[in-house]
Amino acid sequence: MSNASKTFCALLDAHDDAVHRFNAVPDDGRVTPEYEQASQAMCETSDLADRAVPTSWPEFARLLGHMACGGQTGIDEDNANRLMLHARQLLAAPEEYRIAWDAALAEYQRLRAISDAIPLGTPGEDEAVDRYADVMDRLIITTPAPDFDAVLLKMDLAKERSEGFAFSEEYADAIRADVERLKHGVR
């Protein structure tokens, strides 16, 4: 789970906990300090949760449910505007990922072709391999896969890169993050 997702979940979980604490306060018709404290905590955590930034469609759905109080209330204009902004950002992700992926893949392919054209044992061969291997690592680890075809290519590249070595946990984590993101519909 990314740090952004952890932050998102922590904000909404804190509000859920505050609601549960508020609902556990005895309702005897009096406004007690316990009631006031629980009410204030619920309002404060609600305001913070309203500003949580979803990183996937399931998180967006959770935020929508929070803002609508499970369908018990309407969504105010500020929160409606926030939801529209979040939806636009989630929908915009595919193009950004595609552009970054295509650029990184083209650079890897260019450097790989240069390296492959250098005969074994020729001066500069090791440097050329190092250059394409660095770009290959960035393609696998830090460039989000825009679709499942790209994930498959990452898996093949990671297997090739790991040949003769233990499979890098960093590779596995990056590929898993891509699959999780794509599985949840965030391209």
How far do the termini sit from each other? Answer: 16 Å
- Nearest-integer average pLDDT: 87
Task: State the major sheet.
Answer: none
N-to-C series of helices and strands: HHHHHHH
Instruction: Please estimate the helix content.
Output: over 70%
Alpha-beta classification: mainly alpha
Number of strands: 0
Assign an overall shape. Answer: elongated
Percent of sequence in beta strands:
under 5%
Tell me about this structure:
73% of the residues lie in helices and 0% in strands. With 187 residues, the protein is an all-alpha fold.
Gist of the model:
The chain contains seven helices and no strands.
Layout of secondary structure:
Blueprint: H1 3-23, H2 33-50, H3 57-67, H4 77-117, H5 125-141, H6 148-161, H7 169-183
Which descriptors apply to this entry?
mainly alpha; 187 residues
